[in-house]
Design a protein that fits this description.
It is globular, with a radius of gyration of 19 Å. The longest helix is centred in the first third of the chain and has 20 residues. It is 47% helix and 11% strand. With 253 residues, it is an alpha+beta fold. The chain contains ten helices and five strands. The two termini are 33 Å apart. α2 crosses α8 and α7 packs across α8.
C-alpha cells in the first residue's frame, strides 16, 4: 500500500510540474533516464534505484513555486531573480520531506542537486563527502541535460560539448567517478539520431561506442546540398578526427 500511495503522490506532483512548466517536466524525465542509467551501471540495489528514481523525477518540483516569467526569462537574470531561482532547491525539499510516502533521501535529491564538490554550489555550499551520492549523481545528469536543451536565453550545446563541460568540472564541481559513470552508461549520441557533419552532409547514428561517446558510427544519407545519396555509406568518426558533428536533433526532448 505504501508503494502505491507513494506513486500516487509522485504522479500528482509530476502533474503539478507539467502544468506549471513543460520544460521543467521534460527536463525531469530526461534527468531520470540519465540517473537510472548511471545507477544501474554502478550496481545500485532496488531500494536505492527507487529512492533516486523518485528523487530525480521530482528534483525540480520546487520550481512550481517560482513564477513562470522568471523561469522562462529570455535575458540574463537579475541578482534577486537568480536568488529566487536558487530557492527551488529548498522549496522542493520542503514539499517532499513533508510527504510521508516519499523517502527523505529522495527529498534530498531536490535539496542537493546544485551542490558542488568545492563548496561553490547552493543552497548550503556543501563540500565533498558532505554531499550525498544521490546529489552528486544528479548534478552530472542535471547539468548535461540543461546544456543540451534549447532555452529562451541560449541555444543547446552539442552533446560532446556538454561532455567537455563535465570533464572540465570533474574534481571541482562534479565527482569524477560519476562523470565516468555517465560516459560509460549514457549514449550521448544515441542510435537513430540525425546529425549534420562539418562536410555539410546529413547522417544518422547507427552505432554508439561507449569508449568514445562523441565519435559514433554514422550512415551518411544526404549530400552537402541536401540531396539523397544513391549509396549511403558509413563513417567511423573515431577514425576520422577531421569530420565533426556540428548539429543534431534534440536529445530525448
Amino acid at each position: 500500500f505504501s508503494e502505491i500511495k507513494s506513486m500516487n503522490n509522485v504522479m500528482n506532483l509530476l502533474t503539478n510540474i507539467f502544468t506549471h512548466d513543460t520544460y521543467t517536466f521534460s527536463h525531469s524525465m530526461n534527468v531520470t533516464l540519465y540517473t537510472l542509467a548511471m545507477t544501474a551501471h554502478l550496481g545500485f540495489n532496488e531500494k536505492q534505484l527507487n529512492e533516486i528514481g523518485i528523487g530525480s523525477m521530482l528534483h525540480d518540483v520546487g520550481k512550481c513555486e517560482i513564477p513562470r516569467d522568471i523561469l522562462n526569462k529570455k535575458g540574463l537574470l537579475k541578482d534577486d531573480e537568480f536568488e529566487m531561482i536558487k530557492m527551488h532547491t529548498e522549496y522542493g525539499f520542503e514539499i517532499l520531506r513533508k510527504d510521508p510516502a516519499i523517502s527523505l533521501l529522495s527529498a534530498h535529491c531536490a535539496l542537493q542537486h546544485h551542490e558542488k564538490l568545492d563548496g561553490s554550489g547552493y543552497p548550503r555550499g556543501l563540500k565533498g563527502d558532505d554531499i550525498h551520492p544521490y546529489g552528486k549523481i544528479l548534478a552530472v545528469a542535471d547539468v548535461f541535460d540543461a546544456l543540451t536543451s534549447n532555452r529562451p536565453y541560449r541555444k543547446a550545446m552539442l552533446p560532446h560539448e556538454a561532455m567537455e563541460v563535465l570533464y572540465a568540472g570533474a574534481y571541482s564541481h562534479f565527482d569524477p567517478a560519476y562523470v565516468k559513470a555517465f560516459q560509460n552508461s549514457v549514449a550521448t549520441y544515441p542510435v537513430g539520431l540525425t546529425v549534420k557533419l562539418n562536410t555539410g552532409e546529413t547522417a544518422v547514428v547507427i552505432q554508439y561506442e561507449m569508449g568514445s561517446p562523441s565519435r559514433p558510427i554514422v550512415r551518411v544519407l544526404n549530400d552537402s546540398n541536401g540531396g539523397l545519396i544513391d549509396k549511403p555509406y558509413e563513417i567511423e568518426l573515431a577514425k576520422h578526427p577531421s569530420i565533426l558533428i556540428t548539429h543534431c536533433d534534440a536529445i530525448l526532448t
